[in-house]
């Protein structure tokens, strides 16, 4: 297991650029559901949104840190979990929230706002918790982790497509309505297919080490979902909003995590395996939870 901290995965610059472009397309397709009025409505009743942001960027990183103290995994795996916890909500959270009978409008708006906040919060949380947890501090010291570079990456990969999607939805709602669902389905299919193909060159490595991270990722994801649910419950939100916040907290943008791992950490093995396994497992757990919740209509 100690070797996982030294392994670097093969991932070409061209593949990284393609992954950036695919994530931008996914974000654009999500933004086709957004209008400025959605943000204004949430500003008038911000309790659910603020609760979701706190759950995403405060509660989850704290729970991640406590999990690391209890489990003491290899440093690169630990940093991978910290990075995933520092990312905004994942691209499939809106679809899963809709399937779960939760507040899909809140989910979409949370994804958009968390993505904007990620320019600051993602590098901050990685640096803060990564340095606070002693085993990962050495990795960060050896890494040229430039918050400005991370912010620029997040902007071009997520924020700019978000703005463009909103502009299309406002100025050409007919076009947005025609392409919205098709774009979302195609972009997610391409994204999943690309991840499978891109990691094929490292498949033996993933098979060798997936078992080492599987249990941790499952527990980490369960903590994320539970943290979102309990945070929304403590704030006395409706079941309708609680479902959205639970799923937004438990579905992380592991695609962004992989981009940052290959761009700033040289494809560090333990980090990449943790983020990749998260990308598979959160979809499984999210869909399973949605299937259970969908049997009973959420109280509003």
Describe the structure.
The N and C termini lie far apart (48 Å). The chain has 300 residues and is mainly alpha-helical. The protein has helices at 13-31, 36-44, 47-71, 75-86, 93-99, 104-132, 134-141, 147-171, 173-198, 203-234, 239-250, 254-264, 269-293. The model has no long low-confidence stretch (mean pLDDT 83). It is 80% helix and 0% strand. The relative contact order is 0.21. The longest helix has 32 residues, at 203-234. The chain is globular and about 50 Å long.
Task: Give the SSE layout.
Blueprint: H1 13-31, H2 36-44, H3 47-71, H4 75-86, H5 93-99, H6 104-132, H7 134-141, H8 147-171, H9 173-198, H10 203-234, H11 239-250, H12 254-264, H13 269-293
Computed CA radius of gyration, to the nearest angstrom: 18 Å
Strand portion, in percent?
under 5%
In quaternary terms, these chains amount to single chain
Give the beta-strand count.
Answer: 0
Can you give the helix content as a percent range?
Answer: over 70%
Low-confidence stretches: none
The best one-word shape is globular
Q: Structural class of the helices, strands and pairings?
A: mainly alpha
Query: Main sheet?
Result: none
Number of helices: 13
- What is the element string, with H for helices and E for strands? HHHHHHHHHHHHH
The pLDDT mean sits at 83
């Amino acid at each position: 297991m100690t070797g996982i901290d030294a392994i670097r995965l093969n991932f070409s610059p061209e593949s990284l650029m393609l992954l950036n472009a695919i994530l931008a397309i996914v974000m654009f397709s999500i933004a086709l559901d957004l209008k400025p009025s959605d943000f204004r409505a949430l500003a008038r009743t911000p309790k659910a949104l603020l609760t979701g942001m706190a759950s995403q960027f405060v509660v989850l990183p704290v729970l991640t840190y406590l999990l690391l103290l209890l489990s003491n995994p290899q440093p690169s795996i630990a940093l991978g979990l910290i990075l995933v916890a520092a990312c905004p909500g994942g691209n499939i959270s809106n679809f899963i929230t809709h399937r779960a009978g939760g507040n899909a409008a809140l989910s979409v708006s949370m994804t958009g706002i968390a993505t904007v906040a990620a320019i600051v919060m993602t590098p901050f949380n990685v640096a803060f918790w990564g340095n606070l947890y002693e085993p990962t501090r050495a990795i960060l010291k050896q890494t040229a982790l430039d918050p400005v570079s991370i912010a620029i990456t997040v902007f071009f990969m997520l924020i700019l497509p978000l703005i463009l999607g909103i502009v299309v939805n406002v100025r050409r709602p007919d076009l947005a309505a025609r392409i919205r669902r098709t774009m979302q389905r195609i972009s997610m299919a391409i994204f999943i297919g690309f991840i499978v193909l891109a990691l094929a060159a490292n498949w033996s490595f993933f098979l060798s080490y997936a078992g080492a991270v599987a249990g941790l990722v499952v527990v980490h994801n369960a903590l994320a979902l539970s943290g979102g649910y309990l945070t929304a419950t403590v704030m006395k939100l409706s079941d309708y909003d609680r479902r959205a916040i639970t799923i937004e907290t438990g579905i992380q943008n592991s695609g962004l995590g992989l981009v940052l791992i290959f761009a700033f950490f040289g494809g560090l093995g333990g980090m990449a395996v943790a983020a990749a396994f998260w990308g598979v497992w959160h979809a499984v757990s999210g869909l399973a939870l949605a299937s259970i919740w969908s049997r009973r209509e959420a109280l509003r």
